[in-house]
């Protein structure tokens, strides 16, 4: 034993520093946006208040309510059927139901708009067979608030399905059997035991869907529905009113944080219900005849409209109409950007997770929780929150360099640095979440065994942690990659002038009513988006 | 002075800002199997973490084989201490085979010796031929034995066992504790077990330190702890028994509801003082021939014997062991007699 192996107890170091810096980075956009609340009101704000604010609020509320209803209608029955009954096709449907997660809502919106166009195949056929107007009108009116609600519900219901299914399957068969022995009928057991116990999970899934709805920009923008997100962009670009945009963002943030707190409290109760006793799915009932058909139909419908139909259409358009040549550059630049940003994010996340593991403390826990709020921030708000301080920096820096004959330039705000920074703010939680759950499976006693068997702290990481959390690191990378690929508003606002990604290209083409040409970038996003859905489902079933 | 393998002096420890161990001293002889026995929350696991080097000291020193391991200002890193540990949750590395798990701490050993040591230990724990299995393919008892082998492999100077049997079922627990004792004795490793289970401690240890609220109440052999406990807490913690009122009559005798009782050692109380007399179920024997009878008010069949609860004529209820086939009904009057080797008295 050498003298050098004795060390004073560590107090402060790089891991902790990085965590604090990361927390400050994530905090920056929020603090910037919120700080405008105290700067007073602009003229445009008064105008906004009189004319548009009411409409934004009403539309956002209406849309959220419709989507909440929609995801419950689509997600809960499917979860219930998959959990409690056996029928032909149950196995494959249980994971097909997850696939719509691969779609960003705006791509679904572009696809359905293209199909339901006045001159599109469906309405042409309907006119030929002289279908009544009441059947054709709603299809023509897809570009409306109810239309947007349908699109969002179709891609967001898997949240509810997934959480409700887990809650149903976690319920102990013993509880239900206890209720039967107390003389309760099947339907009463369902209403009094099964549904109340799954309610926190269903609520959590619905709240996630509503948060995504509030953050959505692509769909509502394309359908011309004026909500908070479109309002923020319009105020910023249309009126050039930074203060107004920041204040609108603050309002939206208020709603989102309210939902986050709500979601956290409902989820904290979810865990309470899980039970290691005999699981329900071992007692499920086998269906036959018409009951089986109804069960299949209820599960097939969401998959069909949320995934199979639009994917078929996109494939058809991509193969027969679109030109692929110009897309290669786009694919390469998108993948490069997403790959680089997700690597960076996962590295930062690893540092934060290790800081928490090695030096657990209350204030560090708070810092990490704060980092965790990033995902709840709508992309539009993150973009505005990044653009304002970076723009100010650019102006100041140019002013500073002017005496030296340097031309004013966008040093940060017009570069990929701003974009990657915004991705970091928004998606850091995705990575920390995955890594934390991976690391938590490596119990502290594993580390301690390693140390007592002669490994240094770094040796524990190299010989034990890396082999054990490789899977979680990969998952974190994959999920970040796909989320970045799908992210529209932040990319749209922050990208450099000559830089395009798949999502932005699809947005631009759809904006020019070139919906068929938008099929190729859309299809790329969806196909890559399938990877984490399939991968995660595989690892869930394996466990 | 006798040489000590492990020596702990005046230790003070905190856990999340609460002082949980204070003025704690303990030493173990070479090859001795020691045990810290106490209710949960008495600080015994934190103490073990401090010995392993995962916990800061506020005060005191920890020595192992005449080498200073920890002070409040310095500590030798865990990997350089020569201390092995077996964990409550077993903590085998899930991605490695049994052979690789056991060989994990043998870095730097020549290949041949590694293989030899692994095989030797697998044989010792009765799992020869399992070397290429993975931890999840074994039962809980087997996994715990592998964890033991892994900790023993690098021949540590001290082996710590942190409630290693608590995840196993009761029957296996007692058997494994004796088995582990045999294995450790054959290897001559000085060890310290932490547990809250009195039977496990008796099965395992040469000497047991009973802990309560961060202090050692008594450090003694299992036999002495049971028969000559130094405080009411120890008396109750290591086995069943009842307190009854008594009065000291002479240097070696007390008067009690059971009559005048005498033993052959000094009680240390002045004649006439009111004291509490502690009686275990084995101090009172069921004897059909005895003239002295009591009413049977409760019975617990333990297979090999009965544990009866009897009410004496003075109203005092005591435990009493009876042979397995003496099956009396509740309410019956049965003969009992006293069999007291030594009187256990505490101040009132």
Specify Rg of chain A, calculated over alpha carbons: 25 Å
Q: So how many helices of chain B?
A: 8
Please state the structural category of chain A.
Answer: mainly alpha
Strand proportion of chain B, as a percent range, falls in 35-45%
Number of E strands of chain A: 3
The coarse overall form of chain B would be globular
What's the CATH H-level homologous superfamily of the largest domain in chain A? MetI-like
- Strand share of the residues of chain A? under 5%
* Helix percentage range of chain B: 10-25%
Mean pLDDT level of chain A: 82
Quaternary form: heterodimer
Largest interface, Cβ cutoff 8 Å: A-B, 23 and 33 residues
Alpha plus pi helix count of chain A: 23
- Please summarize the sheet with the most strands of chain A: 2 strands, parallel
Which structural class is indicated by helix and strand composition of chain B? alpha+beta
Tell me, what is the CATH class of the largest domain in chain A?
A: Mainly Alpha
What order do the SSEs of chain B take from the amino end to the carboxyl end, as H and E? Answer: EEEHEEEEHHHEHEHEEHHEEEEEEEEEE
What Rg of chain B do the Cα atoms give?
24 Å
Do you know the CATH architecture of the largest domain in chain A? Orthogonal Bundle
Task: Outline the fold blueprint.
The complex is a heterodimer of chains A (543) and B (348).
Chain A (H helix, E strand, L loop, with lengths): L5 E2 L6 H22 L7 H9 L1 H32 E2 L3 H7 L8 H11 L5 H8 L4 H8 L4 H26 L2 H9 L4 H30 L2 H6 L4 H11 L3 H32 L11 E2 L2 H32 L6 H32 L3 H11 L6 H23 L14 H25 L3 H9 L4 H30 L2 H6 L7 H10 L7 H24 L1
Parallel strand pairs in A: 2-3
Chain B lengths: L5 E10 L2 E11 L4 E5 L6 H9 L6 E6 L2 E4 L4 E2 L6 E4 L11 H6 L7 H14 L15 H13 L5 E5 L7 H18 L2 E6 L2 H7 L2 E6 L2 E6 L1 H6 L4 H6 L4 E9 L2 E4 L2 E4 L11 E6 L4 E3 L6 E9 L3 E7 L5 E7 L9 E6 L5 E4 L1
Parallel strand pairs in B: 3-9, 3-10, 7-8, 8-9
Antiparallel strand pairs in B: 1-2, 1-4, 4-5, 10-11, 12-13, 12-15, 13-14, 15-21, 16-20, 17-18, 17-20, 18-19
